[in-house]
Q: What sequence folds into this?
């Protein structure tokens, strides 16, 4: 009996070792030979903790970022000042434009030469120096703090904030970052909270897990389990309540108290951005970035089908445009521009992406922004 148990144990051990070797071989071939990477692979390599902003780029870091499975990577280089940009001197030698925002501004989804600062600088024939101060996963709140404490040191003549619909949700996050709330004693005033910031790591759970980063087998197994949980869930929208769908909630036809407060805070943050820019003598433009269902009716219908809620995919544009008009803030909606020109998401966005722009999309963004500058007379200061 003891000999039989020993034999079973030996066979089991051999099977385990053989399976481990097979997994290791598959992962090595996939990673080294075939170059297979997971979604957002590499993003954690360029980020570090910041006591001011929660997270910020790691100066002098270099590498490649892979936006999604099945798509090639793009080179990323962080400057000595911590921006995904060229090396810049503080002293300017020609008029300057500063771009602020999140991943839709820094644009790792395209190659370096196709990113907004490079394309806009070319669109303006080099008359302006265009600086890209975008940082992935920033809300309006972090972009405001960055502009005030770092961006204005470059003495910009124009500041462009590209608003992404997920900024409203990001502004409401409370962990690992500074955040703003309206003052209970004066709802017309914002109060910053969150300091001192608790260290939350450079990335999320998957980014911090080296097995997830390097193992195709582990990622495949994890994604399969996630899909199984979604299929077995009775909840609509892939098992998530509507309030957790950051890309849909702002388009509800009717806002509850939570949505109204989040929108109020976002408006007040943008108004403060304008004030910061104006105090330094800079013009200020808000660009509403594209979001897939704003111009793709089929995608909009598919995304909203699970929910018994009425949606209005023009609402964010109307709300932002109305607020900007009342506040005297220059505003440009890419969705309105795209619809006016009959442009499609297939032209302007990478396959499978809902918020980032392709290389053609960034050229479209650049042309629209340059035209807005010209119509407002902001280019007259350039030689």
A:
């Amino acid at each position: 009996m003891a000999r039989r148990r020993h034999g079973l144990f030996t066979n089991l051990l051999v099977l385990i070792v053989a399976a481990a070797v097979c997994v290791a071989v598959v992962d090595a071939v996939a990673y080294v030979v075939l170059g297979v990477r997971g979604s957002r692979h590499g993003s954690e390599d360029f980020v570090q903790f910041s006591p001011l902003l929660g997270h910020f780029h790691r100066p002098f870091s270099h590498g490649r970022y892979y936006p999604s499975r099945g798509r090639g990577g793009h080179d990323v280089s962080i400057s000595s000042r911590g921006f995904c940009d060229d090396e810049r001197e503080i002293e300017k030698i020609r008029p300057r434009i500063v771009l602020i925002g999140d991943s839709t501004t820094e644009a790792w989804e395209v190659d370096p030469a196709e990113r907004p600062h490079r394309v806009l600088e070319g669109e303006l024939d080099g008359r302006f120096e265009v600086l890209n101060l975008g940082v992935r996963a920033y809300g309006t709140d972090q972009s405001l703090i960055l502009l005030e404490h770092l961006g204005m040191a470059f003495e910009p003549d124009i500041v462009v904030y590209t608003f992404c619909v997920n900024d409203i949700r990001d502004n409401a996050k409370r962990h690992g970052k500074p955040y703003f709330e309206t003052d209970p004693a004066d709802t017309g005033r914002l109060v910053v909270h969150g300091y001192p910031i608790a260290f939350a790591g450079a990335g999320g759970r998957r980014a911090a897990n080296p097995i997830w980063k390097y193992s195709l087998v582990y990622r495949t197994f994890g994604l399969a389990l996630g899909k199984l949980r979604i299929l077995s869930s009775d909840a609509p929208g892939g098992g998530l309540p509507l309030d957790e769908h950051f890309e849909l909630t702002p388009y509800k036809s009717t806002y509850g108290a939570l949505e109204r407060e989040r929108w109020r805070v976002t408006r007040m943050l943008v108004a403060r951005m304008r004030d910061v820019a104006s105090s330094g003598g800079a013009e200020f433009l808000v660009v509403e970035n594209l979001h897939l269902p704003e111009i793709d009716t089929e995608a909009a219908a598919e995304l909203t089908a699970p929910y018994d809620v009425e949606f209005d995919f023009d609402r964010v544009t109307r709300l932002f445009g109305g607020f900007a008009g009342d506040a005297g803030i220059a505003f440009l909606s890419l969705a309105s521009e795209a619809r006016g020109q009959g442009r499609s998401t297939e032209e302007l966005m990478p396959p499978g992406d809902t918020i980032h722009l392709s290389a053609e999309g960034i050229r479209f963004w650049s042309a629209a922004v340059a035209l807005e500058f010209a119509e407002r007379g902001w280019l007259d200061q350039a030689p």
